[in-house]
Every structure is written in C-alpha cells, then in structure tokens.
Amino acid sequence: MRRNTLWIVILVILQGCGGALISNQQEREIGAGVDQQLKKEYRLVHSNDPVAKWAKEFVAPLQRASVRFRDPKEIGGYKVAVIADNKLVNAFAAPGGYTYLSTGLILQSKTCAEIAGVMGHELAHVTQRHGAKSIESSFAVEQIVSLFLSDGLAAGSAVLIWQFLSSTTFSRDDENEADTVGLQISYGAGYNPDGLADFFRVLLKAEKGASAPEFLSSHPATGKRIRSVERQIRKRYRGNAKRKSTKCRTRMKLAEIKRRIKSGKLKLGPKTVQKKTTRTDAIRHWKTAMDRHKIKQKSKTRKSSSQKAKPKPKN
Ligand SMILES: [Zn+2]
C-alpha cells in the first residue's frame, strides 16, 4: 500500500514536469549506454579519420537547423559516428543525440541532399523524443525509475535499453513526423529537401535486389510515403526547394569521401566488436532480459514488503 502511494506521488511529480518520465540528463545517459553497446556489434570509423571528421562537419548545419524543434543544448549537442560497413545501408539515432550512419549508406547516396534527408530524419527522431517516448510507453514507471541510479544508468540497463531500441521500430505516426520535421531540418541546413524522397527511391530499387538495405526494415520506403514527402515539399517550399543545394556543404566533397571509403584506408576505432547479433537474437535477448528484470522486480517487492527499506549502498 505504501509502495503504491509512493508511485502515485512519483507520477504526480512527473506529470507536473510536463509528463516526461525520462529527463534530458537521463536521455544523455541512455545514449551513452547505447553507444557503448553499439560498439560491441559494429566497428566504427576512428574519430580522427577524415570520413568521421567529415560526418561531424556534415551534421553541424543540420544541428543548427534543428534548434527550432528542440534546443540541442538539452542533450549536449549531437554526437556523430560512422559505422565502417560498406554492405550495411543504415542510419540510426539514439536518445541523447547519438547518431550513426554507415559507410554503405554514404556509398549508396548519389548526392549530399540524400544524406541530409536521412540525417535530418534521424535528428528529428531525437528532437521529437521518439526513442525516449517509446521507452516511456513500453516500460512501467517503476521499471524506468529502476533503470537509473543516482549517479547514472544502473548496471545492465544499457544492455536492456540497447536490445529494446534495436528490436523496436517506431510507429507510422512517429515516422511521418520524423519525415515532416526532418525535411525542415535539411532545408534549414541549406539542402534540397527532395533528397529524402530521392533516397527512398534508391532504397526501393535496392529492395528488388537480393538483400534489402537494413534502413528499410525500420523505414519502409513505400510509394505512398514518397508521394507524401513530395506533397509536403511542394506545399511548404513550392519552387524554392530546387534552389537549395544537393552538394555537400563541407570542405571535402562526396566523391572524395566515397573514394576514401573504397580505398580501404579508413582508420578504424578500437576493436570492441564481440558478436553481430541478428534481429531475432536481439528480440530474444530483450525478452529474456525483460523477464529477468521482472523477476528481479518481483523479488525486490517481496523483500521490501518483508523487511524495512535500507538505504542503498553507493557503488
Ligand atoms: Zn525513422
């Protein structure tokens, strides 16, 4: 009974804070945890390599254009890394502004407006808090609170959250919102917003090949979606969209970046890759982790009802 009252009090406090269960600081901690886990499954390009530096420079104007949707300072700015995998066509954004794009995606893109379309869309998932919201709606309040300690993420939480996020796809509404906001971010950064529709068309073509790009599994590029993006661009920008750039607003050109990727001279980050789990693996692990978590919670509840609460020792 006392425990129930406590959760009601926490809920009331959280609702008073604008309804968000996960704070900006916690979003950053989640992102840092995801980054840690991602490096176990993917090899990143070293942050000193020209390709990684180019990616950072590429995202800077997108970050500036995203301010009207959410102040990047709330999450300590966007962190950008490149996944070194020429066969993987994917981009990903975690809560807290941790964003990734693969070398395969760069190689598949014909213009920088296409990459800006994809990255604008990914930044929009962060400005609109889609990742944080999906955790808030899928975990019970009690579970969310227990993911964190007073000094950050609790042990095991990073694995649990990574497995959850990598096995969850955003709702169609979230995807549509990320398209709409992302278009405005890429346009605001000086890029022709048609890039997003162009990239989806590239994906549609690639889908007919033997192995579909991974980006498609979470971002189905249907004709309907492409038409909706095009309709929005016509309505919002009329003829002005075409006046914006399709070329990179970076010192290095896309052709140079592609050449460096293909050269095989990329400097790679530390080798922490353990095992590439498949999608089903991630789901199975997540379920197991969730079950373990629930069991833990149950035993904790039993313990706390049978003995007086003691202050937790700090690690
Ligand atoms: Zn998306």
User: Low-confidence segments, ≥5 residues, pLDDT <50?
Assistant: 8-17, 279-299, 305-315
Instruction: Spell the H/E element sequence.
Output: HHHEEEHHHHEEHHHHHHH
Strand order of the largest sheet: 1-3-2
Please indicate the count of domains.
1
Number of alpha- plus pi-helical segments: 14
Written account of the structure:
- The chain has 315 residues and is mainly α.
- The protein has one domain.
- Helices cover 60% and strands 6% of the residues.
- It contains 14 helices and five strands.
- A three-stranded mixed beta sheet has the order 1-3-2, sandwiched between helices. A two-stranded antiparallel ribbon has the order 4-5.
- Helix 9 packs across helix 12.
- The longest helix is centred in the last third of the chain and has 28 residues.
- The chain is globular and about 50 Å long.
- The protein starts with a helix and ends in a 9-residue tail after the last helix.
- The C terminus is likely disordered.
- It binds zinc ion.
- Zinc ion binds next to helix 5 and helix 9.
In short, what is this structure?
This protein is mainly alpha-helical.
Protein traits:
two-stranded antiparallel sheet, 315 residues, mainly alpha, binds zinc ion, 14 helices, globular
